[in-house]
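Think of the structure tokens as a kind of shorthand, similar to the way a musician reads notation: each symbol stands for something richer, in this case the local conformation of the backbone. In the example below we present two proteins back to back. Begin with the first one, reading the sequence and then the tokens, and try to describe in your own words what changes along the chain.
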Amino acid sequence: MKIFCIGKNYAAHVIEMGGDPNAKPVVFMKPATALLLENKPFYIPDFSEEVHYEVELLIKICKNGKHVQPAYAHTYYEKIGLGVDFTARDLQAKCKANGHPWEVAKAFDQSAVIGKWMDKSAVNVEDLSFSLQKNGEEVQRGHTSHMMFNIDQIICYLSQYFTLQTGDLIFTGTPEGVGPVKAGDQLQGFMHIGGKDELCFDFQVR
């Protein structure tokens, strides 16, 4: 299983982080040891003084594929979810400044929170809103229509370089509003479907 992550996929977040909103997709990966499941608590690592939350829509690849064509991209996933890409922002800044890869800031243990999965047929992936609350206050809200690269485009792009395999996960990028967490924070993620707020994850930071 591979965990693909797309960076800088919402223009407002790209600008928020001082990036170029006209660039190609930024791709990085996390190992399986980064997974944090079943609403287990997230423990802030002792090597960072500034860990940030980044809420993201997720998809789970359902069949193998290479050089996927746009007309068939939608057939490569059946499940959609919500999660958090935790980032050691202070380490990331040092990596960027030195021209180094981001793995120590992005791929550390428990940095990939996965909430519950839903059937793609239950949502309209082209018109889907989601949000993150910290201690009951909304801090991020995104909409799939604001993606610079939609899910099908992401699948096609990744499959040019990597063979997609059943069970692979894709974090599709975060909207603006990222920020720090501290011990005691409660994070809740919601998909907003048909006027209802669907709770996807609910966990504590320690």
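Once you have a description of the first chain, move to the second and do the same.
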Amino acid sequence: MNDKIRIRKAELRDVKTIAEFNARVARETENLTLDPDTALLGAKAIIKDPHKGFYLVAELKGEIVGQLMVTNEWSDWRNKFFLWIQSVYVREDYRKQGIFAALFHYLKDMARYKKNVAGLRLYVEKSNDIAHKVYEELGMTIPSYDIYELIF
């Protein structure tokens, strides 16, 4: 891992970059074009309301090069939260340099000290073999259930 990587919680000043990264990841993973205004409002909404979650950003030389968003899911079975990792993006010119690993380890270390967190979860496109390999190398496993959705 690159020791020069700085991880921090995102702030309002970061929303334009976050919205652009979200648009890039949507194009790359789902061939989906996001409305720029909606993406910007969505990034602002989570930063302004920590109950929705938060973003972590990775910086090198003062420039944001990666991000992930974290949301909460209450588990009544465990009486604790699961933290869901979403909106993962690392700029193409910084991939395979430990940026996501730095974000992941920062979040994992943060979560381990909270008594109300049961673990971390994320979802990934089934065909994204590179991401599957990265997540498995970080110790994550595939659970025994599938995710269903209904989009409105």
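Compare your description with these statements about the second chain. Residues 15-30 form the longest helix (16 residues).
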